[in-house]
Amino acid sequence: MYKITIRLRIICLIGLLLSCDPEKQNENPPNIIIVFTDDMGYGDLSSYGHPNIKTTQLDKMADEGIRFTSFYAAASVCSPSRAALLTGRYPIRNVPNNFGPESKNGLPINEITIAQILKNEGYNTMAIGKWHLGHQPEYLPTARGFDLFYGLPYSNDMILPWCPWLTEDDKLFIYEDSNAVEEIGFDQENLTVNYTKKATEFINDHQDKPFFLYIAHSMPHLPISTSEEFIGKSKGGLYGDVIETIDWSMGEIFQTLKETGLDDNTIVIFTSDNGPWQNLPDRMLQQGVKETHAGSTGLLKGSKNTSYEGGFRVPAIIRWPKRIPEGIVSRELANTMDLFPTLIKLAGAEIPYDRVIDGRNIYNLLKGENVASSALFFYCRGVNLEAVRKGKWKLRHTKDKGFELYDLDIDPSEIYNLKESNQEIVKEMHKEMKRFSKETGAKLLPIKE
Known about the structure:
This protein is α/β, with parallel strands linked by helices. It folds into two domains: about 30-365, Alkaline Phosphatase, subunit A (3-Layer(aba) Sandwich); about 385-445, Arylsulfatase, C-terminal domain (2-Layer Sandwich). About 25% of the residues lie in helices and about 20% in strands. It is built from ten helices and 17 strands. The strands form three sheets. The chain has a ten-stranded mixed sheet, sandwiched between helices. Strand 13 (about 375-380) and strand 14 form a beta hairpin. Helix 5 runs parallel beside helix 6 (about 235-260).
């Protein structure tokens, strides 16, 4: 009798522990909010070292959750990065290059987005802000798993004079769902504030069921602007004003979550699609755009549309009260594709099994467990495979620089090329690049004999 009682107690204890793990049950799936900024640099937040831009709300978010120091976007330009976030797959598999007003296609119809999976699981879904995965009806958010959409179909610079290949017929409109409702052109000052209003309205109106809210800010992509009440507030100039407006927006979202009683059951992710546009072309330097309107990579080398760290490594903060311990700083490698399987499992849904999912479930990492990553991370620019990271090592191979090998633990700025003294590591990592190239069709620079 005594042994039976002990066994029953053990069984009950195991059941209780499993019921506390959100990956083992789906009775109360979390609300999910992803905030995806545009061209925000690794060094643009005060919690990432910016001396003049104050981001108090995001700093508080980091204090109450986990902040990553080695978090990567899957591409260093817009459309590919967004495709990877929403599908959990390297963009070489689906969207290697950007779309624009002249594009007739978008994210391939056979791709499955996280919004589609969550919607099928009973979630209310909304996309706010920049889409940039096709603006034809069959590619818009409302055809890709989102119940609602409010925002721009592509980047805020995709009109004349910044894109000289376009015509006067290429106008920039705000969309509501699948309808273009208002031409905004150069009048972009209120985009961040309006996106924020739509976000808080959505939260207030969808308290009865779990929701997935994807907020893809148009800022700080050039041309930057912000509402009058934020002008001149930052010591970091206009760019600082824009970042601090986004920080204000995060405060409004958290306040709404608290007022609705949804805060404890909402996981919020904040990150960027790629690094800052420091290498902007001359065509952008008109209509008030200045070189100083780009962000900071901090101590990282490179910028947007490069395969150096400044193009791919981005700020990332994740908060989920009572689930993610407070004040964690993770130096382990993670990336935007990891959000796909992680969030799907937390929602109690199934990850698609009929295709390669490149992301991995990082929930244990979010909980603060010491999970060393053995995963590889590949850096593609368009269809070209230029680099790979494994642990502390990064191998880069390009036409202009040849082979470059960096120890990112001691040299995150990629200053010291260690290839000569580490030829075996070069060979091993280049073998991984060849394997990935063969698997995906990514183009690899041939080695000169």
